[in-house]
Amino acid sequence: MRSARRPGEKRFVFAEEEPPRVGRVEWLEVAVPEVPDPQYGMYVWPCAVVLAQYVWYSRNTLRGKTILEIGAGAGLPGIVAAKCGANVTLSDSAEIPNCLDNCRLSCQINNLEDVPVIGLTWGQISPDLVLLPQIDIILGSDVFYDTEDFENILTTVFYLIRKNPHALFWTTYQERCADWSIESLLYKWNLKCVHIPLETFKADEEFLAGSNLPGSHSVHMMIITLETNIPSVT
Ligand SMILES: C[S@@+](CC[C@H](N)C(=O)[O-])C[C@H]1O[C@@H](n2cnc3c(N)ncnc32)[C@H](O)[C@@H]1O
């Protein structure tokens, strides 16, 4: 039974792909707070719904995996991962405390009070970054939105992947400018990426997880790894 919607909450329903198993449809409903605030991290962005759909699609591989979400905002992909049995840590800029508070509220609403929410600012080595446990997957939705941050994001990702050479960075980005590219930075940091077509995880839809957020936005999904590591794509 679905609980009543609280004011300022957005709901997303992830359901088993068609055709459902006879007599049983697997589904997951999550709710995230949305607060009228100029900070980008207080809203759910189209990229988050697409990445959350990839997480949901991969749910049978996630139990017991350790996952860190960076630039999480309201944390939709990480919350779906935690609901699917992963050990999740959510993070956002240490310099935006109200965004971290909103992320904590998101965890509370979904009965995930045990999920740690920490301040991790891209490009900065902090005790919280250094003390993170072993990581299997890094999540980042719509983190590549300002070219000024690209190198700092990849510095942080590189730091984590060097410590966890098997780790995969699952990330979605929205095409806002055809000139933007991270190719040269990936090369510089000895990283490589594989593009995952949206139709392979049923995300090539304008209406996804009960939400019209993806709309007609051009969202892409990629998996970034160390150059020497081959990603296992589900
Ligand atoms: C476009 S929003 C995306 C939020 C969320 N991932 C989503 O897709 O709904 C970008 C996110 O990056 C965070 N962010 C911006 N600068 C950052 C930095 N230097 N270090 C860490 N996070 C940062 C913002 O607070 C915000 O949550």
Automatic annotation (TrEMBL):
GO terms for biological process: methylation. One of its GO terms (molecular function) is methyltransferase activity. InterPro entries: Methyltransf_16, SAM-dependent_MTases_sf. The keyword Methyltransferase applies. It holds the Pfam family Methyltransf_16. Keywords: Methyltransferase, S-adenosyl-L-methionine, Transferase. PANTHER family: HEPATOCELLULAR CARCINOMA-ASSOCIATED ANTIGEN, HISTONE-ARGININE METHYLTRANSFERASE METTL23. Belongs to the methyltransferase superfamily. METTL23 family. This is Methyltransferase-like protein 23.
